[in-house]
Amino acid sequence: MENIFMQNRKNLIERIEDESVVVLCSGEPAHKTTDQFHQYIPNRNFYYLTGLNEPNMKLMIVKGKTKSFSFIFIEETTEYMRQWLGENISKEEVSKIAGIDLSKIHYLDKFEQFFRSLMTYGRGLGVAVPKNLYMDLYRVKPTKEPIAHTQFKFVLETYQELSKKNVNKHISYLRMFKSEFEIKKLQKAIDITEKGLYRIMDSIKSRRNEFQLEADFIHQIKLEGSFGCSFDTIAASGKNATVLHYEDNNSDLSTEDLILFDLGALHSNYGADISRTYPINGKYSERQKIIYEIVLKVNKESIKFVKPGITWKELNKFAKDLLANECKKIGLIKDELDISKYYYHSIGHFLGLDVHDVGHYELPLAEGMVITIEPGLYISEEGIGIRIEDDILITKNGSKTLSKNIIKEVKEIEEYLSKT
Length: 420
Prior knowledge:
- The protein has 13 helices and 19 strands.
- The protein is of the alpha+beta class.
- It has 2 domains: 4-175, Creatine Amidinohydrolase, Chain A, domain 1; 180-417, Creatinase/methionine aminopeptidase superfamily (Creatine Amidinohydrolase, Alpha-Beta Complex).
- Helix 9 (180-203) packs across helix 10 (210-223) and helix 11 runs antiparallel to helix 12 (312-329).
């Protein structure tokens, strides 16, 4: 079987122009305080093309008219690093993981010299000197310079004749379509998340604060071998659940309230994204049940609606119209336009290496995409916030719910909680 990361690079090479060079950096941990750093997270595009999790690496892909080459530049272990941090990953390990010939793995201090020779005579690779430079030009904010401008300052300043192009749009297209390898990683992350949610339900009646239930989840997914949370956990009880991205998780629990969890485990850099809403005392009140059943209906019907060819616009309209009609039936709203007061987000997003994964939302859904379906209702005046979110794989003729084993029916939840 061909190395999956080799295949990812081949797919990218097919999309870019001939006589081009691609440069990507793995990134480095952000400085925290004094001699401490935040936990390192590999650049997802770099990981997608290499499978490597280590900081301070550079990937170079050279594409000629008839052939192409991949090179990786890694950090050499110094004696200081060996004593304080341990050995860096070896060239042999990099070669095996990334599927790149050992002769094409070099140390970082050779990068500039290597690039000079590439731009002088094609490095003896039998390809023309590149005309195009592909970089990841993603901006964290519109006013912020792309990180790649700093990472590859030497290249930009020295070779201004290169036509600069954004590789991000090509990789984001490829990342929309999940391989069997990726789906297995996502499924594992979802399965671990399920165990974390059962741990929450086991503990819910005995806990007194939101952060205690968040801690239960984190503890369980770590026990299950997760790398940690795929994003900051939302544990929002009562009125807190009407704030879409509430993350304080520090309020005391009231037994009469619901608590909304939006969370996920991380496995091999792939993250789950699941939302469930539970009654803290183990039983939904009549009003809570009415609202919950509306959200659940929209969740289930939207999943049924999903299939190849459906656009995000159509999917969002379907879910919003159904929510509005159901809310009119119970008198929560009088006009369909009023639903925006109680539902103020889209029905879902792409899922993968990022929780809100990259992708082209203007394109119709297609086989191999993984998305979330997450309708919700947020009634601030009643202190009720409910969201039910599942992770969905688009198949040839419809969809498959990867999170189908995570219970969400009122009866199932109440029966489970009655045993705790």
